[in-house]
Amino acid sequence: MLSSSPAVTTTAHPPQSPETYQIPLNLLSSPRITRRDLFKTLSVCIATPSLSVSIAAPANARGLFQMPPLRLSNRYYLVRAGESDYESLGIINTNPVAKTSVDSGLSEKGKKQTLRAALQLKAMGACDRNCWLWPSITQRAYQAAEIIAAINGISRSYIVPEYSFLDARGLGAYEGKKLESISEVYALDSISMKTKPPPISDGTPNESVADVFVRVTQLMSILETQYSEDTIVIVSPDSDNLSVLQAGIQGLDLRRHSELYFGPGEVRLLDANSIPVYKQPASAVYKCKNPPNCD
């Protein structure tokens, strides 16, 4: 017994005007439309300036990180690694070629400073609900991350080494000089964020504050894209990465980043409540209309 098929009701729609899609009229009357004809038609549609195509902007494009940010998706702790062997000798060492060398590791004093930093993080409850550790691959910073992980009960799988964005600031011709010479670099920084230390031929970069700012902004773009509502501990081998980052996050004049100097083993929570008292000095030298991009 054959069952009757249900009636199919079709609704007629008014045909679209050929001019709307810029389709050649001779193609519409062609008895046979080939695949090549369709590709040609598509290219005409795309290339036609009069064809308007509205594309919705992606919501919450968190990868487009700007300084200062409107908000942070994560909670951040900034940690400078303890004193290195080079620093214990009073010598500036910023050449990235030596960053994984044993000589770039923590000194005995630096290990104690890092231990205090790890205990401070524990007292602050930084990793009570777990946390991610993002240290520079520089020897002393990675050693510091391992100490922090051990004290706070964090698995080594939560240590994520950073290979370039957290390198110590390259100080060019100041490489190998006494640590006290860094005050000369900061004097240059206070004039312009684009001023670089004098270059040197041994491969040590000579980075301006603006160069460091680009690196730490790229780092934050990665972190704010990859994580959400997590706690991240950033471990840097030097102060400048952290002071420039903090100044940028808080919208301060980058030329004055050295006022936010991090001592070896120092820990800070980076949030809205940690913004320091900031007063613009009565000086044309520090006049800035668009912090942190001041020049």
Automatic annotation (TrEMBL):
<feature type="region of interest" description="Disordered">
    <location>
        <begin position="1"/>
        <end position="21"/>
    </location>
</feature>
<dbReference type="InterPro" id="IPR029033">
    <property type="entry name" value="His_PPase_superfam"/>
</dbReference>
<dbReference type="Pfam" id="PF00300">
    <property type="entry name" value="His_Phos_1"/>
</dbReference>
<dbReference type="InterPro" id="IPR013078">
    <property type="entry name" value="His_Pase_superF_clade-1"/>
</dbReference>
<feature type="compositionally biased region" description="Polar residues">
    <location>
        <begin position="1"/>
        <end position="20"/>
    </location>
</feature>
<protein>
    <submittedName>
        <fullName>Phosphoglycerate/bisphosphoglycerate mutase family protein</fullName>
    </submittedName>
</protein>
